[in-house]
Each structure stands twice: as structure tokens, then as C-alpha cells.
Amino acid sequence: MRTQVCIIGGGPSGLLLSQLLHLAGIDSVVLERRTRDYVLGRIRAGVLESGTVDLLRRAKVGDRMDKQGIVDEGIVVAGETHGFRIDIKALTGKSMMVWGQTEITQDLYDAREAMGGTVIHEAEAVKPHEMDTDAPFVTYYKDGAEHRIDCDWIAGCDGFHGVSRKSIPRSVLKEYERVYPFGWLGILSETPPVTHEILYASHSRGFALASLRNENLSRYYVQVPQGEPVENWSDDRFWDEFKARIPGDLAEKLITGPAIEKSIAPLRSYAAEPMRWGRMFLVGDAAHIVPPTGAKGLNLAASDVHYLFEALKAHYLDKDDSGIEDYAQKAAARVWQAMRFSWWFTTVMHQFPDQSGFDRRMQESEITLLETSKAAQAAMAELYVGAPY
Ligand code: FAD
Ligand code: DHB
């Protein structure tokens, strides 16, 4: 088989890139290791920056999001005793959209199918070859037989555990990492959300986050120690802990119910550079991971896709390779800004096991600064809603 762009990974990055390329008349094939149902079953991101919202509309997968997504114009940050609102819309002129990653992936799969796009599921032992030559290709096994796809470019959209990044020589790849000594226990429950604006609470018992998916679907998280087994957390234990960490007025009106999904995600900051090796590009979680505080992961994947799509479009339609040459540097520059924001917000809001009284006072002072300084709020709002591409 031959295609122009061979995309490894059928998560949000790979599907969105394939969809944008298709609309520009550029051919691609997506190779995904899992089944479609498995990919759609992963409950992950929920908050989209305004740039991501615009990109999804451009990719013609914005209709359902515009009808059913919840426009969010502010967030609430809380310390030990009370919360305060940061008016993102007033401070930046832009707003966020609450719209689940599962819904985005569903719409992207439907759009690819309707337009006759090639997405190959259950592709095993996918491997990129000869990326440092002008004739790269990708091999994989399906139903016991080996297949080969020759292409002009390879897009490594295969997430943190994928094969693309690992195929870059050790002597070339630079990695930067911080692993945090805690994780997030997240639940999904069919109950009315306690708040329509996302709440980030820094409590001495640990961090808590209240988010939502729709009028009767709540998404809540609490910080838990690193390596904690999810079996240790009955629904009752989760609700008690969550209630203890959010401001009293909200705790009083919280409606609880059975968890329909419950899982623990570890927290890390990680970046690999360069984001391009010869004719292979790294995109999204394949190149970088941020801790979820501040909801940047999926949004960074979208900005990488935007830069790569523009670069490939200029290459094929205008015979201009400047975007290809600039991709690694441009994408990484935006990644590092989001990396700093997520690290800062994580560090201010969570309890660290070895934290001193001084450290806690510093966290409280950061939160007071945010509550009392319009300038501090404006800086945070700008980063939360997302830098323009
Ligand atoms: P992935 O979603 O990881 O997709 C990669 C795909 O590649 C997968 O389908 C995988 O099966 C496939 N693959 C892997 N290896 C191979 C291989 N060898 N061959 C073929 N296919 C392969 N981000 C936000 O912006 N906002 C949020 O609110 C937010 N909340 C989050 C909450 C949680 C609990 C978690 C875990 C993450 C959250 N994120 C959030 C991050 C966000 O989910 C990720 O950044 C996003 O999924 C990245 O998309 P991706 O397509 O780059 O990678
Ligand atoms: C959600 C996740 C986040 O990481 C965040 O900062 C806000 C909301 C969510 O899953 O809804």
C-alpha cells in the first residue's frame, strides 16, 4: 500500500490530523493498535481551549460540540475555606468548552468513516522504518500477515507508550521528566454536577477537582498517593473524601450516586525532543505529557496537529517546506509554555508527602495572590484559555 502520510495511532491526534489532511486533499492511513470500542471507552479529557474548539470546527467535527457542549466562561479556585471565581471571558475575551474526549473521538471516527478514510484497527507490531531517508515505510501485522505501507511522511500520534518516539535513536532523543508522588482518582457519576464552572480545590487533605460532562453527568477527582490501588476506594470513601476537600457550601449541596467509572491516573511532566526525526514527526502524548491540572494534554495534542497540518498542506499545495523545517521548534515552544503552567498549577494545588509548613504557606500565598490580584488572574486566565497558535 502507498499513502502520502502514514499516521501511527488512532487517538484524537491521529484522527484529527487524518481528517484535516483529507479535507485538504492529502491522503493518509491511520494504524491503530486497539479496537474502536476500546479507544472510545477511555474516559479522559473534558475541557477544550478556544483554539481547540476552532480547530474541531475547521475539521468539520464541531456540530455536536456546538449543540451539546457546555461553554465555560470562568473557573473557581479554592483554598482551605472558600472559593473565588476567575472570570476567563472578561479577562481574555475567550471561553472554554466542556466536551468530552470520548465525544470528539466518536465524531472523528464517524467523519473518517463517512468520507471513506482508511483507519486500520488491531494493527499489531507497528514499526516505522527508514525515517532518516527519503523513502520511509511502516510495517505491521494484521490477522497474522505482515503488511507494508510506503509513504512520504510518518506522523507518530501513538501516545506516551507508542512505538514512534522509541524509534528515534537514543543518541538523538533528549528527555525531560518530573514524576509527582501522587495520582488522581477520577469518577464519573450520573448525578447533576455540583457546579457548572470547574472547581480546583487545594485542601490540606489533598487536591480535589469538580468537573462535568453534561446536566446529569459529573466528573470528579481527588488526589491519592502514588501507587494507590483503586480497589481501596469504595464509592462511599470517595464521596466522603471529596466532600471534605471542597468548600462547605458546595459540599452541602453535592448529590452523590454510584460511580459508573473509576480509575487512577499517575501524574507526570515529560517532554521529548526533537519532535521531528527525518521524515517522522511526533505529535501529542507521543512527545509530551503534562499533569492534568489545568487540562492541557489534549489541547497540546491539538496545537501540534495544527502546526503539522499547516506544514504538510504548505508542502503539498504550495511546495513550501518552511513549516516542515519549523515544526519541531514551533510545537515545542508552545509545549514548554503549557508544561510550565501545568507544573506550576500542580505544585500550588497538591499536597506533597514531604511538604513543610513553609511550603504550605507558600501555596496559600499563591492562592491569595490569585484571589486578590487582577494581574495574577489575567496571567492565569491567558494560559488557561490557551495561547493562540
Ligand atoms: P492518545 O489518546 O494516547 O492516543 C494514542 C493512540 O495510539 C491510542 O489510541 C493507542 O491505542 C494508539 N497506539 C499506541 N501505541 C500504538 C502502536 N504501537 N501502534 C498503533 N497504535 C498505537 N487533556 C486535556 O486537554 N484536558 C483534560 O481535561 C484532560 N484530562 C485528562 C484526564 C485524565 C484522567 C487523563 C489520563 C488525561 C487527560 N488529558 C486531558 C490528557 C489527554 O487525554 C491526552 O493528552 C490525549 O489523549 C492525547 O491524545 P493523543 O492522540 O496524542 O494520544
Ligand atoms: C477535567 C480534567 C482536568 O484535568 C481539568 O483540569 C479539568 C477538567 C475533566 O476531566 O473534566
What can you see in these coordinates?
The chain is of the alpha+beta class and 389 residues long. The chain has helices at residues 12-23, 36-41, 50-58, 63-68, 88-92, 101-114, 235-245, 248-253, 297-318, 322-349, 357-372, 374-385; strands spanning 5-8, 28-31, 47-48, 70-72, 75-78, 83-86, 96-98, 118-120, 124-129, 137-142, 145-150, 153-156, 174-189, 199-203, 206-214, 217-225, 259-273, 276-277, 280-282, 288-289. The chain has an 8-stranded mixed beta sheet with strand order 6-5-14-15-16-13-17-20. Strands 8-2-1-12-19-18 form a 6-stranded mixed beta sheet, covered by helices on one side. Strands 3-7-4 form a 3-stranded antiparallel beta sheet. A hairpin with a 2-residue loop joins β14 (199-203) and β15. α1 (12-23) runs parallel beside α6 (101-114), α1 runs parallel beside α9 (297-318) and α9 (297-318) packs antiparallel against α10 (322-349). Bound molecules: flavin-adenine dinucleotide and 3,4-dihydroxybenzoic acid (DHB). The site of flavin-adenine dinucleotide has 36 residues, from α1 and α9.
